[in-house]
Amino acid sequence: MKKLLLYTSLLCIPLGMHAQQDCANAVPVTVGTYTVDGIDGEAPTPVCTTETTDQAGNGEWYIYTAPAGDDVFVTVTSDLEVNSGGDTRVQVYSGNCGNLNCIVGDDDAGNVGNGFLSVASFQAIAGESYYIAWDNRWSSAGFDFEISEADAPPPGQLTFTAQSTTTSGSRIAMVDMNGDYLDDLVSVSASNININYQLETGGFNTVNITTTNADNTPSWSLAAGDIDSNGYNDLLYGGGSGVTFMMANDDGTAYTEISGPEFVFSQRSNFVDLNNDGHLDAFVCHDIAPNVYYINDGDGNLTFYQGADPDGIPSGLGLVTNGGNYGTVWIDYDNDRDMDLFIAKCRGGNTDAKINELHRNNGDNTFTNIAGDSGVNLADPVQTWSSAWGDYDNDGDMDGYIGASSTSDGPTKYMRNNGDGTFTDISGSVDLSNTPLGIENAPADFDNDGHLDIFSNGQILLNGGDGLSFETITQTVPQSGAIGDANNDGFLDIFSNGLFLNDGNDNNWIKIVTVGDESNLNGIGARVEIVSPGLGTQIRDVRSGEGFRYMSSLNTHFGLGQDEEIETVTVHWPSGIITVVEDPDINDTLVIFEDENLGVDDITGNDLKVFPNPAENVINLETPIELNNAIYSVFTVDGKRVLNARLENTTIIDVSNLATGNYFIRILQDNKTYVQQFLKK
Amino acid sequence: MSKYYLTLTILLFALFLSCGDDDNYTPMAETDDDPMMTDDDGGDTVDMGVTIDLTAVPFNTLSEYGFFDGSLANLTPNEGVLEYTLINKLFSDYSTKKRFIWMPEGVSATYEADDQLLVFPVGTIIIKNFFYDNVLPQNARQILETRLLINTADGWEFADYVWNEAQTEATYNLDGSNVDIMWELNGETRSVNYRIPNVTECQTCHKSGDTSIPIGPKPQNLNKDFTYTDGSTANQLDKWIEEGYLQSAPADINTLIDWLDTSAPLKDRVRNYFEVNCAHCHIDDGHCSYRPIRLDYTSSILDENLGVCVEPDEDLGNGLTHIIRPGNIQRSTLFFRLNTTAEESRMPLLGRTLIHEEAVTLLEDFINELDMECE
Asked: In terms of pTM, does the model score above 0.95?
């Protein structure tokens, strides 16, 4: 029957019947070479290509059916010598003409001629039919194409499948907007927030929420966080001449605009609790001036600051007069359980504005740029718009992938954290020759193997396991986007000019939601650490605002490879509270509440002595425990952390800046906490 | 999860501006016995008309400088304030500009090279007035701002004067603001949310490395005739020399052509447009010098510096494969960036919110005319 149809169709082509003019009259094809005379039929939709997503005017339709029996790996290509100089685009669908689903699409994967020819490969299920549609996005001229079959790729190869979504506006975030801990898709225009709420049953509920006409749109970046702790994330629009906040109302159904009058040439924006008072603050990179931030007093006021300010952050957070601030990410690089700031910087010419900065959080509301300190090696002029920070070698500290946007001041830098506050440039010993230039770099474990990968400008740099080699995956990978789990299958998807669903594999995973109490509600700034038998320890920071433009999920995702259990999950909250959960379910979402009493039991008594007590300027520690470089934290009796740092081989702590009153000092060593009280005179 | 609703307000904190304390100026009164100077060639004495205490600038108002005679809005220059024009001008959302220059007594600029800025003496003030004609509903001229570049002992400083609605005065303000304008252009009603820049926006374009500089007054862009308010016509460089504003200039200057001159080759026109609209960033030591293109007139003679067949560092997607893809505007990043108003994509980055349609047409013609193959 099928064969008969095929022959009939082939006979028809020379007769000028143009049977391939629309989906319903798609011409059956199988392995072989075919000629498209010219493109003048019905345009294919949706567009599945990841590099170009705009609609074409016309298309030509074919239908391929995989042989019965085994699945096969099918390649459709126009990348043939005979087409040299041509320019094609192809879409491949499953389903039927009334309901086409993107399988794959390609614009320019070819190499022949100018490189504008197309190559699309997909795994075809035995006996299933697939529509192949060539369109005239670039050219209506005729060309030849070839279909070939090969054995299916090994299971586990990372691929994405484009899925059509109903959005309007700039597709910019994948983050939970309604408090159900499922990532939603957020698209924004000046007077509308389009949210595809992810349903527990799968799929989305698409809602458009009209807003006032925002003074600033998220043309440069968007960040999300719950400023007012009402359970619904608020949005920050980073615009070219200012910042707009969109505040979710108490049931998340409407948003109120707050736009500051200050001129801000926004770049990356973040939410983080800058002054560790439990209230989420906002930070915005300023392209051409010192950085700005908005301090939340937890009581109705967001206050704008720029640069160093005794009422804001006395040290400021990036003070170079002409700016050059492009991509910030808040990380705990020195493992002292507070958030430090890396600023990826970019600027032409001979200027300090291009020198990257690493601001160490001193734990007392001040920050110090230590990028140029001995051994840190991060005060680099590499022209970069964002950096991807993660523990790529799973040795318990955050390494930095400083992605170059241009090689004019040096190539991409890959910096291994030595665990002692210094970094080693290992760019030379890791093959980065295939890594792309560009503005978007963010970490995520896309194949759930327990080793962090890097999403960089149309490529996924797949971690070989030891953080010392990366395989570059390009096919089916979109250029950029927000990272999250759009179908709750535990595999990270990408949302930008389309929704690209990770096809997954058989690795295990866990997602952790941090719900703060003393700390900000999102738990932004928390350090999450898991221990599993095969992979050992993996770490993440809860971050709002990674890469350059997009807002990715606030849920913390770990791949587990073939590990079947997790021994412990530890959360170091920004408040200083430590939560430990043992043996959680895997392949599931674990919600951890800061106010649940799962904390580490403090050890009190003679294990830690403090003198003099009352203290005036310093306190001395006396203890039988091995202190080494333990983290000390000083809390008020209300539980607010006022000092936090590492001891750095001293037993003397300066408390001269503390107000008179009662305090607790806590030493954290080997996951045990030792606590003693003292009085400051 | 606690549910309480907070009303958030943003408290305003004044941003400290480095360009002087405008509350502490000392205006110089203009009197009849202003210093006189001897004219270079004639020996006649002329009233300089304008004397400015450079330690007291920037003044609070434009009128305090005394640049203009009579009604301020007429922009009639006083003696010693020299109007000038440029062969090629920056596109600023279709606004029109009137430019003037003033220097103190006894100093003058020096020539360095045809394609380099004149070296201006300390005390030089470059004055640029931005306005629209046929502004609706009155169908009248509306001056929006007067930007000054003041060459102080510490280098060029920015000052901006924002005009009042009555067009009687302009007041110092470097905070930046927006003005909605509706006007008639070639019989068509147009509108713009016009941006008056703040000091950091000024600095973004007007700099080399971190040093503030002017952009326009290069010999190659000044070397043309101009008709002065007294009705006389003269070559501008000759006039500047005559007035004592320029020491000397070679007779033979490699001069820009007007990019609107349709008799000129397309590439030449494009290079001329880029020189004044793009090269302030895309030049050695410019804001965007980390990008591969060099768009100053001198460098852009090389196709590679124009971006022809050069792959962009940043892949914008949308099938944009080269900065300029010969014969293919849809694959040309440069065309895409000039043909959009999206602030994250448009070029120039600042100073433009509308598409410069005539320039886009020129660029399209230029790209379509190119027929070389990229490797």
From this structure: no
